[in-house]
What we know:
The protein is α+β, with helices and mostly antiparallel strands.
Amino acid sequence: MIPSSPADALGSHAPGVRDVLIEVARSTHNHFAEAHEVSRSRYAMGFGAQWRDLLSGAHDAMKDRGFSSSKLPPAGYKLPVVNDCLVYLWRVSDSSDPSSFASSQTKKNGFGVRPPDPMLFETIDDIPEEGELERVVQAAGGTMPLVLVMVHSSHLQLQSIEWAVAELIEETGKVNLHGRQTIWRPEPVVETMTSDVESFDSGAPVMPAIAPREQEGLDPDA
């Protein structure tokens, strides 16, 4: 069963995961935007190469917080696993459509990953509590949902970050997005106007008084 939204898929981890992924996306964008500006290149190919850094950054940040990972063949991308869900941080280029996300075999393989076997625990301390074990056993019957985090950006601006639960339609190869939501946008720039400037929508403007000034070097009594 496909979760209705990323919050539903990630459970109680959703707020923390969202904040971490936003930070990774913003940091990666700033790094590549600065590099593009320094290079003075007329082409944005170097800026677009950040896709691998996004994946690695998300994986490392989530691993540092104690989450496991799963490797996708054949390219070997490592994706974080949170609440038995894969998390994929993806930059959406101007020429891309999220419905065409599964454009490679590696991405397609992200929709067929099974959760770890709940019976394969290294020690007795690794065995989850009864309620948690039931949830893991149920999840093991199918594949892990894929939470797709979409970064919309150009070398000029990070425009927005969205996330959704992605579902691959086998017949068409297209991807449906469930619970799509914007989780970050840049702060709007608000222009402040000077409060002591009077409006001219009514009345007449008051002209400043102008007094004649004596010319320097002339005797006023001459």
